[in-house]
Amino acid sequence: MKVLVFGLGYVGLTAGCCIASEGHQVVGIDVSAAKVKDIAAGNSPIHEPGLQQLMEAALADGTLSVTTDVADHLKDADLALVCVGTPSSVDGALNMSYVAGVSRQIASGLAAVGKGRSEKLTVAYRSTVQPGTTDRLIRPIFDELLDGTSDEVVQLVYNPEFLREGSAIKDYFHPPKIVVGTVDAKPNPQMEELNANIDARTFWVNFPAAEITKLVDNSWHATKVAFANEIGRTCLSVGIDAKQVHEVFVSDTKLNISPYYTRPGGAFGGSCLPKDVRALRALGSEMGTNLHLVDSLLRSNEAHKFAIFQHCIEGLPAGAGVLLVGLAFKAETDDLRESPNVDLARKLLEAGYKVDIFDPCVDAEMLIGSNLGYAYSQLPMLERLLVDKKTANEKSYDRVIATNATISHLSLPASANLIDISAL
User: Fold this and answer.
1) Was domain 307-420 assigned CATH 3.40.50.720?
2) Per the database record, which ranges form the UDP-glucose/GDP-mannose dehydrogenase C-terminal domain (predicted)?
């Protein structure tokens, strides 16, 4: 198939490279000329294990190309994947401006093509959206620009992704499930071909059921993290070993479901969980339902961030030197968006501590887009704070704070005053 991927961020670029590796012809489309230029030159704009190699192979094989202009590609494309961002608005609802913009771009392009296509184009959305978006926002755009003939020209699909940063390529080929929303909840041939080599249960559902899936899943993951951290800081306050409590808790795999997202440790963050919790909360407010637990998740997470900060500075004199190991919200990624570790770094600086930061995956000069914007809005002096491995190993610090598995990159002396947030 010829597959167009709109939006070359974490989801779009990863999906595009994975699809290209299966022999499909992929055209990546992004509004950022700088990003397109970097990718075309073989430089991945994001850090994701295995992505650079996958991208280089696809470019070399000719199965992946990138552009800023959809041009004539709509004439013979079989499938268009929309993977643009949907950041949180002020009220917590999702900002649909990028989704609307790309929808207009595709619809206008199809209108210009006219009758040059012999079959419908499947347009599949992977951006996180509120339930009802396909019917109330996307379909009307296509109807307007195609003079009410959208059903004859396109088949709309909503196909949420379940990629975890740090293991996105593995997750693409081995997802927990495949969810595809269509107008009649019936299979779509292009989506079947796209997922032909993926061994996972497929759910064919209507649009709203598919659209809410991502919000429900990520809000559940956030619930597990917040619950575990409430137990963790309670144990910490009364002198109980939370690691032992966690060991007992996760041994019950029959009733307690699984150990994932349940280990007491750092606050949740990143580009998905906080945003999707806000989105589900906004939906509950709009519908008049009382989502008390969901309403409490972000407040609980902020309380946990403050508790972590207090724990980290306990007994630490003013002006002391601190090494923060791990700045991204998760090891083996460079994503700083809503990272609780960025918040911790800011709190330490505001409290007057001398802070160095070591994260092998974060390069201040390589940050782009919303990742760059968030990083420098929170830590404008980021480039000065980052230190290399040699400095982190050799310099003497009054306290070392490890936020994730990144600590394994260092060879610190046994005398290091280490606090491991990831295992309270």
Assistant:
1) yes
2) 323-421
